[in-house]
Amino acid sequence: MAELNSVTLESAHFKILEFAYYYYKKNKVGPLYNNIKKHTGYGKEDIDKLFPRGLSSVYSWIGIPIQTLDKGCKPIANIKAANFREVYLDYNATTPIRKEVIEYLKKLLDDKSIFGNPSSGTTIGERAYDLLDEARTQIAATLNAHPSNIIFTSGGTEAINLAIKGLAFRRLEKKGLILSSPIEHHAVLNTLFFLQSLGFEIDFVKIQNDGSLDLNDLENKLKRKPFLCCFMAANNEIGTIYPLKDIGELCSKYNSILFVDAVQAYGKIDLKPIEWKISLMAASGHKIYAPKGIGFLYVSNDQILTPLIHGGEQEFSIRSGTENVLFASALAKAAKLQFNEKEAETLRLNKIKDYFIDKLNKCSIPYTINGSLTNRLPNNLNITFHNVDSGSILLSLNSIGVYVSSGSACSSGSKEISHVIKAIDPDNSNGAIRFSFGLYTTIEDIDYVFEYLPKIINDLKNKEKTYVF
Ligand code: PLP
Predict the structure, then answer these.
(1) Which of 53, 85, 86, 456 is the most buried (most CB within 10 A)?
(2) Do 213 and 243 touch, CB atoms closer than 8 A?
(3) DSSP one-letter string for 407-451
(4) pLDDT tens-digit map of 40-54
(5) Is the pTM of this model over 0.70?
(6) What is the Å distance from ligand 1's center to 261 Cα?
(7) Which of the residue ranges 34-43, 139-148, 237-246 would you say has the lowest mean pLDDT?
(8) How far apart (Å, rounded) are the C-alpha atoms in residues 465 and 469?
(9) 155 lines ligand 1 (CB under 6 A)
């Protein structure tokens, strides 16, 4: 036995260090947890127990530059794009501010007559108030709601926190049960886990392999009388759409309040909060070509929330703080355009999606589409490429200017598969790539991707082979 930094080294340490050393020598990148597991049998849990700082210690002890961890120590395909261009296919992550909204914002910024405080009784304040009121009215109209049902927030995460905590904090004595699904966004999941730490009970309804909600399980769990149900309208990773009308019926039958995270769905699919018995619904500006840092919460007339931010009692005393009038107005402008163009854009995006799948089939890359193909956001494709690590694909695509998302956290150095992919496909060890299309995506963009994607996949497959010791 040897000692290093007061850790007694056992044969397991040597086995891992030896493998990591040869792996780095050969591949010029450090191994990931899964590489080590594959070749030594020791997985993330063992490595984190054996080494004080997990994979970082393995790297530093044998001199692998730690930057390879920070950059995502994954092999990248050796592909150069002669006709390099930037292709943004990550519209589910965020959208650029659309041209019309930029023009509109410029006009507002230049307008010296509207900078007042909307809470002030002065003429200049009233002008700002009117602009805010107009934005609220326009957004309410997209949901057939009343303007007083719309609370502006700093974005989706804040709207989600306000809805869930705002209700839960009204029952800090009684606590109670909240139902949700395992594939919600972390804005919902982490809010729920926080409430769990305060004594609330959280239970998750089962989902099917395509990410759809098991309505029988929902009904069974509703019999336990949860005071709140939190379900997303559409999933941000796999695009699966939840049947909100049916969920609303069931929740109302069992007297449970329904909160909907509509951050990915607002402006893309039909949402009828009043008809579908949805009490609270969150949306965000930066998913629909408005700026980041603005969103809203729809609150039905019968819900009272405990505010999370106290102060000057703006936003009907639910969310204090001087409102971001310009961004609220930009959000309303973007929403209006989005709703006017929804049908035509849905058709166009579905065509792009079909074109993408057709291209994929023609180049015979083995793949699986995650999520439902029929019940899905028009702009989303989530794909697992068989036997190729999604982090490597992401970095390789990035090197030729194609921007996508991957289910694995490449910056952590470990190959973490996203909770959504894990929930629908527990055996998936490659992660998944999310291609999400939008307003500025063209067929030429997809052609560019397919000029290189097959080469990337083949190159990475060959690399994988050379990594085997
Ligand atoms: N909910 C879903 C489904 C999302 O996709 C996102 C953002 O990706 C959020 C919530 C958080 O929204 P925001 O980024 O506006 O805080």
Answers:
(1) 456
(2) yes
(3) SS-GGGSS-PPPHHHHHH-TT--S--EEEE--TT--HHHHHHHHH
(4) 999 999 999 999 888
(5) yes
(6) 8
(7) 34-43
(8) 9
(9) yes
